[in-house]
Amino acid sequence: MLAKRIVPCLDIKNGRTVKGVNFVDLRDAGDPVELAKKYADTGADELVFLDISATEERRRTLVNLVRDVAAQVNIPFTVGGGISSVEDVDVLLQNGADKVSVNSSAVKRPQLVNELSQKFGSQCVVVAIDAKKIDGEWMVHLVGGKVPTELNLFEWAKEVEQRGAGEILFTSMNNDGTKDGFANEALARLSEELNIPIIASGGAGNMQHFADTFIEGKADAALAASVFHFQEIEIPELKEELQKQGILVRL
Prior knowledge:
By secondary structure, the protein is an alpha/beta fold. It has a single domain (5-244), classed as Alpha-Beta Barrel (TIM Barrel), CATH 3.20.20.70. It has an eight-stranded parallel beta barrel with strand order 1-4-5-6-7-10-11-12, surrounded by six helices. The chain has helices at residues 32-41, 63-72, 86-94, 104-108, 111-120, 153-163, 184-193, 207-215, 226-229, 235-244, and strands spanning 5-13, 16-21, 24-30, 47-51, 77-80, 99-102, 125-134, 137-142, 147-152, 167-172, 198-201, 221-224.
């Protein structure tokens, strides 16, 4: 059995780490390079770096910041935001990213997932899916959750797996920033229907929420932001608690 992964997420806007609730009301959470180093030093298994306004502002992810973060960490590092081509990924990998996350660009041009997995390997390609439960249906949203689509979460996840995605990063917009727990029912269904790892995102508020998403949600990794950025949960203590509950983690 593979160890479950704890993944801090650095949402970047204007070179700073930010965090909001339900994708809005952003507040400053610190310097991304300092935070990245702290997490790498205190037991995070991976880091995710999302330039949250890159797609909306139609510019590329901040390559210099990626390079600075990569220089400070020795754990896998995923970068997303504004990625729309093989060339974009090439630049990020050359500057220290280990994996890339694509979201809006993959929905607009699904063939991008095929191109990236063929060029760099599926282990390098994370497809991020932001979805909102509306009238009982999980619907995919784009551009940081601002643009609704007609795509169903589960159908889209299956399609990108077939196209070569190596992981799914599923963020529940309903749960994001609420600290009420992850969307475990949807996560469990994704885990059952797909054969690639699922990263849970949106809703972490306490240590039990992480345990629940690994046990009930069958997630392979759990991603969180504010509970780590604002020292509400420290990663070493979280891992000790998960181990006490019989969940395999790397200490």
